[in-house]
Amino acid sequence: MDFNMKKLASDAGIFFTRAVQFTEEKFGQAEKTELDAHFENLLTRADSTKNWTEKILRQTEVLLQPNPSARVEEFLYEKLDRKVPSRVTNGELLAQYMAEAASELGPTTPYGKTLIKVAEAEKRLGGAERDFIHTASINFLTPLRNFLEGDWKTISKERRLLQNRRLDLDACKARLKKAKAAEAKATCEGDTVPDFQETRPRNYILSASASALWSDEVDKAEQELRVAQTEFDRQAEVTRLLLEGISSTHVNHLRCLHEFVESQTTYYAQCYRHMLDLQKQLGSSQGAIFPGTFVGTTEPASPPLSSTSPTTTAATMPVGPSVAGLAPTGEAALCLEEVAPPASGTRKARVLYDYEAADSSELALLADELITVYSLPGMDPDWLIGERGNKKGKVPVTYLELLS
């Protein structure tokens, strides 16, 4: 094997010089070239961007895949440049178990029919989760990972090269300083007039020769310093341009963040729609299975966030409860004082929030109080009849937590 011994010795010498300069700087025995304040701010911002990007990336991966073993498996597949196998989501697995249970326990029984309905809803939830994970991985995780594995590696490489150039520059400065000090000392000794009656006048000749040698050494050190300064300035400019590119990285990550929020909004809106459909199916079937029992609507008071996406717009619901009366449109309203509670179907309810009655037909509510509620034929499902002592009136379902 053909080794270039001269290059190897030169590289070893440069490495040794940098190591000595770095060690002396750490112990305060050598001067260090400081970067300007703007450059230091760019370095600080770049380091913060890298650190927080790593944390956001890792936590988003945990959000999308809580199972650490599955994350390790996916990481190995990516490193081996192999396709990650399709994985069943938890919702889809639950749907499979429910469907198998319904088949074994009896698909025609009330319990079996309900299991089938819930299994279908859970399967749709699992599919929505799969789409969300896929979209978030492409639109959010991949750009963050590309920055860490691409742009940041380039920045780190150029920063290490800049550090080496700075060590070379400071070593040249130290070498020049020592050469000038030695030259000045040799010059002072050479300026002394010798006594030729001495037996050794050669000391004068040696001092003059040393002064000339140190003068050559100073010239050589100055030439090396100019070269080192040029290389340092060039590398500092290259590194500065890369660090200023972090602003473009922030813009790109901002766009990816908007896309992540959009996909997450779509996902939760789909989940809300699927569960609302399931709730309506179970509510209608419960009335047939358990006649005479109370069946109320327990829709949440706050809808999911609206979005510009068509899927999310279709999944949103009105913010407030309906203000329809007790009777259908065109019919006379019932007189609440003349209405007697049904023999069965009354329930206790805890008030979640304060509610101010809009008119005399409604019952004002205070948070955390307990009231008796029941439904009447023809009533809007968003409203119930509430009783507190000898007072009764309409109350919105969304303000209540139904108890046993």
What tags apply to this protein structure?
404 residues; alpha+beta; five-stranded antiparallel sheet; 6% strand; elongated
Describe the fold and architecture.
The structure is a single chain. Mean pLDDT is 79; it is low at 195-200 and 292-333. This protein has helices spanning 5-26, 37-64, 68-79, 90-105, 110-190, 202-244, 246-289, 310-315; strands at residues 347-351, 370-374, 383-388, 391-396, 400-402. It is built from 8 helices and 5 strands, in the order ααααααααβββββ. It has a 5-stranded antiparallel beta sheet, with no helix packed on it. By secondary structure, the protein is of the alpha+beta class. It is 62% helix and 6% strand. A hairpin with a 2-residue loop joins strand 3 and strand 4.
